[in-house]
Amino acid sequence: MKGRFIITILLCVGLLIGCQSNAERYGEPLIFTTGTTTGVFYSLGAGLSTLWTKEMGKRVASQASNGSVENLKLMSKGEANLAFTTVNIAYEAYNGEGTFKEKPYKEVRILGNLYPNVSHIVAVNDGKIQSIEDLKGKSFVYGAAGSSTEMESKLVLEAHGIAADEVKGNYVGFTEATDLMRNGQVHAVNIYSGVPAAATTELISTLDTKVLNFSPEAIKKMTEEYPWNFEYVIEANTYDKQPEPIITVGQYSTIVIDESVSEEAAYELTKLLWENVKELEKSFSIAKQFDPKKAIEGTAGVPLHPGAEKYYKEIGVLE
User: Fold this and answer.
1) Are the C-beta atoms of 149 and 143 separated by less than 8 Å?
2) How far apart are the C-alpha atoms of 309 and 297, rounded to whole Å?
3) Could you count the other beta carbons within 10 Å of the beta carbon of residue 245?
4) Is 26 helix (H, G, I), strand (E, B) or coil?
5) DSSP 8-state assignment for residue 35
6) pLDDT in tens, 164-222
7) Residues 56, 28: Cα–Cα separation, whole Å
8) By its UniProt entry, which Pfam families does this protein fall under (predicted)?
9) Strand 60-63 vs strand 209-211: parallel, antiparallel, or unpaired?
């Protein structure tokens, strides 16, 4: 009898722990995974978390991570509720492709797109590289292994007729890539970031380099075959020694949210984000590119969270 009583107590404790775990996942705090401590995602995420916590009366805790891919994996395991990512990663997670082939994450939802990440193919200005096609046989930095930059870089080269084994690939982040360029160890790098990109500014200002245009054929291929991409024009004089516009391709950085977050909470998160853009601009220059009218563009078929959808209907972005 005593044994049965103890088992009953243990079962009850187990149930309570399980309920507490669910409360932590779906209640407070909301966990917002961001990016590495040196990147835009990390600092912007901290700012947004502070704003949301203050205005909602509901704690939102930002958390550093390795970025877009890891963020979606953490969310899929119930270890986060919100995250920064890029639309291509959200697309792969939702559709069970790429790194999510074995385990799709169908519960991912879009809260809102923020700003375009744009491919800057920065190459040494040695007279031998006039176009992206000229990178065949050269040394090229794809980006950090497993990053959205690496994924997009491979699509860029493929769209210009360059197979992965036709360049000498390097897999490092922007800081390391800049050092490699300075040391003459690589010919080109993809700085995949918002415009203006600090790493691109640094490279062009300190080295004899230039940003290459995409070919019309490559732009057509990338925008038609990969629904998260769109043509992007970097305006003339955005960077030093850049008198002409540069034609490239971009996709949105986005905030994703698990479908389990309540409609009310998702609505408040969305509303507070867009109603405080001017305030965010004071601390984060990238916020000047935020536009609620573009918040649902280029989502590649990944659904909006109903709470976010409610807000966009209120402001006329959705019918």
Assistant:
1) yes
2) 13
3) 13
4) helix
5) -
6) 899 999 998 888 999 999 999 999 999 998 898 888 999 999 999 999 999 999 999 99
7) 12
8) NMT1_3
9) unpaired
Identify the residue whose tokens are 């070919």: 215
* Total length of the chain: 319
Say if residues 266 and 306 touch (Cβ distance below 8 Å).
yes
Cross-strand bridge partners of residue 200: none
- Token pair in block for residue 47: 């700012």
Q: Would you call 185 helix, strand, or coil by DSSP?
A: coil
Beta bridge partners of 140: 169, 188
- Domains detected in the chain: 2-114+254-314 (3.40.190.10), 117-251 (3.40.190.10)
**Structure-token match 């005593």, residue found:** 2
CB 135 within 8 A of CB 187: yes
Model confidence pLDDT, tens digit, residues 208-263? 999 999 999 999 999 999 989 999 999 999 999 999 999 999 999 999 999 999 99
Helix count and strand count (H, E) for the chain: 11, 10
> In the chain, which ranges are continuous DSSP H helix?
2-26, 40-56, 68-76, 87-95, 148-159, 174-182, 198-206, 216-225, 263-275, 277-281, 306-314
CB proximity list for 201: less than 8 A, separation 6 or greater: 239, 240
**C-alpha to C-alpha distance for 36 and 68, rounded to whole angstroms:** 10
**Spatial distance between the Cα atoms of 35 and 200, rounded to a whole number of angstroms:** 20
The whole-model pTM stands at: 0.81
